[in-house]
Amino acid sequence: MSSSDHTADPGAESAGELSSFDSLGLDPRVLKALKDVGYETPSAIQAATIPALLAGRDVVGLAQTGTGKTAAFALPVLSRLDVSQTTPQALVLAPTRELALQVCEAFERYAAHLRGVHVLPVYGGQGYGVQLSALRRGVHIVVGTPGRIMDHLEKGTLDLSELKYLVLDEADEMLKMGFAEDVETILADTPGSKQVALFSATMPAQIRRISQKYLHDPEEITVKNKTTTSANTAQRYLVVSYPQKVDALTRILEVENFEGMIVFVRTKNETELLAEKLRARGYTAAAISGDVVQTQREKTVNQLKSGKLDILVATDVAARGLDVDRISHVVNYDLPIDTESYVHRIGRTGRAGRSGDAISFVTPRERRMLTAIEKATRSPLKQMQLPTAEDVNATRLTRFDDQITAALEQSERIARFRDIIGHYVEHHNVPEADVAAALAVVAQGETPLLLSPEDDRPQRFDRDDRERPDRGGRVRESGRREDGDRPERRSRGAGTALATYRIDVGRRQRVEPRQIVGALANEGGLSREDFGGIDIRPDFSLVELPADLPTDVLDRLRGTRISGKLIQLRPDRGATQRSGADRPARKPRHR
Ligand code: AMP
Q1: Is 38 in the pocket of ligand 1 (CB under 6 A)?
Q2: Are 492 and 425 members of one domain?
Q3: CATH of the domain at 15
Q4: For ligand 1, what atom is nearest to the CA of residue 66?
Q5: Start and end of every Helicase C-terminal domain (predicted)?
Q6: Which numbered atom of ligand 1 lies nearest the CA of 69?
Q7: What is the CATH number of the domain that holds 574?
Q8: 39 lines ligand 1 (CB under 6 A)
């Protein structure tokens, strides 16, 4: 591809001199926003991509979700934005409406100190009205799905004649969803002088061809994965959605037999917030981040060494090189942004010949990062389940017994209380066991000793992590994004039963599988894995989808339009009467 291919090597920075955002050449107002968000150092893909983009190079970045690729392209675009230009300067193409909204939110966060920057999400399913009026008022950055962007281009409602930056985000996903033609048309019909950044988790031949055809001498950036982990550290992971992380951690703290623990989070701000939550739950926890002065850091580390402190909530930077034998557990509360950091993190445990435990929280959309970690470290992580109320109660009862045993060993103090209790038993005529139970009530206070089975009410650990606060916030212009407005993204686990659904568009409407997948995925929050076969008939189509689609998803899909026609999605009652040969057998083209 290019003679100047580049391999981002996170290992180089971990050796000591950590790179910083300050040295990358970004606009000071963008740097200020990064400080607010709490990022300490650029991720590997950011450190390599940002200077290249700022220098005006086209870039092909091999990176997946969770590596920080959004900031890798958003920060240089924002740093060079001309706010006085009223036609769109930057266009980001994303495979799904969900990703488009996330990218918009990221742009808005990083643009917090830039005046008057307008970012517009454009995706199918949303009314044209909002998009048109925003476009008329003037937009600097458009983030959209290829299909809807094409619609606007065909209608003449989106002027890309002065486009300076084009980003293809998750290019391989866009192709899988059947958007290849649209993507190529957009690449071909926008100014030749524009700068292009293409990000993809994989590099199939089609993407290589597109990049050779439309990009100018691109710099290819790959994050190097050369890592090994210690064999005496047991590595496990727990699938958990963002809002459930605190409760999950609390349960783990209850049942795991830990001595000292480091809990890794992604941002400085989060270190203090989480440490505070843990202290409120009765644990001795402290936060360290790059902001904590050296003397305070040393003091905290000494407390951890001596056992005055059991839990340290830390960022990658703050915990680098930390060497404390007592650390029996590392918890990746947030997954790291690259595999090298993962290895550094878990290297904090299993020290001095001891065994260690590493537990990683993985949100459903981070599964790919998990696979990357497993591949890079060449060791599979074992999935664990959230400890149940029963597990927690078993440990609580054991601890309760242990406390009694320990107190009984304090013979002098026991002797002093024995007379007082004897006096009470005699004068109130109450069995000694009841008095002991009453004293336990006094000692326990208002907090129940045991969890109840209701505490195990079905946990939705298959949910997306979109509630994550740093992804939150409203998207200006769209007028749509309110909590709960987006369809919950759901993914079909292996073995989920499929059912046949019927939609009222077919060959007559010239519908293609990619349009069906695109519309249903975007509107219903479905992922590609949710789709079975698609069979396009003259007047209707049959689509295989999970049999257990929730009612709200069904309702939303019923009202979806494809090629302007209401699709009226409903379970296909005719399927059972049709012959086997008639059943949808054709796989969608996008697979
Ligand atoms: P992305 O790969 O762009 O989806 O980013 C994954 C997550 O990493 C997002 O929650 C970002 O807010 C976060 N992130 C991006 N860059 C950094 C950084 N340099 N330091 C810490 N967190 C980051």
Answers
A1: no
A2: no
A3: 3.40.50.300
A4: 2
A5: 245-392
A6: 3
A7: 3.30.70.330
A8: yes
Q: Indicate the pairing of strand 6-8 with strand 165-168.
A: unpaired
Residue 70 Cα, ligand 1 centroid: separation in angstroms?
7
- Residue 233 in 3-state DSSP? strand
Q: Which atom of ligand 1 is nearest to the CA of 64?
A: 2
Ligand 1 atom having least distance to the Cα of 315: 21
> How far is the centre of ligand 1, averaged over its atoms, from the C-alpha of 539 (Å)?
46
**Cα distance between residue 154 and residue 258, in whole Å:** 61
Residue 71, ligand 1, Cβ within 6 A: yes
Note whether 238 and 253 are same-domain residues. Answer: yes
- Does residue 314 fall inside a structural domain? yes
73 Cα: distance to centroid of ligand 1 (angstroms): 12
Which of 20, 24, 41, 43 gets mutated to test ligand 1 (max ligand atoms within 8 A of its CB)?
Answer: 43
Q: Is residue 526 part of a domain?
A: yes
Number of domain units in the chain: 4
Domain edge (last residue) among 223, 256, 279: 223
**CA–CA distance from 89 to each of 81, 154, 273, 311 (Å)?**
8, 19, 38, 47
Q: What is the per-residue DSSP string for 457-521?
A: S---TTS--TT-GGG-SPPTTTS---TT-SPPPB-PPTT--EEEEEES--GGGT--HHHHHHHHH
- Is the CB of residue 140 less than 8 Å from the CB of residue 64? no
Q: Which of 371, 386, 401 is the last residue of a domain?
A: 386
The Cα–Cα gap between 399 and 397 comes to 5
Classify strands 119-122 and 165-168 as parallel, antiparallel or unpaired.
unpaired
Q: Are residues 196 and 326 in the same domain?
A: no
- The verdict on 237 and 217 lying in the same domain is no
Q: Which domain holds residue 548?
A: 469-591
- Choice from 266, 338, 342 to test ligand 1 binding pocket (greatest atom count within 8 A of CB): 266
Residues 192-243 have pLDDT tens digits of 999 999 999 888 899 999 999 999 999 999 875 545 566 678 999 999 988 8
305 and 287 fall within a common domain: yes
Q: Are residues 215 and 244 in the same domain?
A: no
Pair (122, 23) in one structural domain: yes
* Whether residue 419 is found in the same domain as residue 561: no
Q: Whose CA is nearest to atom 21 of ligand 1?
A: 39
Q: Please, which pLDDT band fits residue 327 given cuts at 50, 70 and 90? A: very high
pTM of the model: 0.58
Burial class (CB in 10 A: 0-12, 13-18, 19+), 207: buried
**Ligand 1 lined by 65 (C-beta under 6 Å):** yes
Which residue's alpha carbon is nearest to atom 6 within ligand 1? 66
244-257 pLDDT, tens digit each: 899 999 999 999 98
Is the CB of 363 inside a 6 Å radius of any atom of ligand 1? no
Residue 583: band (very low, low, confident or very high) from pLDDT cuts 50, 70, 90: very low
Specify the residue with its C-alpha closest to ligand 1, atom 14. 68
For atom 15 of ligand 1, the residue with the nearest CA is: 68
In a domain, 460, yes or no: no
With respect to residue 228, please indicate whether it lies within any of the assigned structural domains.
no
The rounded distance, in Å, linking the Cα atoms of 256 and 283 is 14
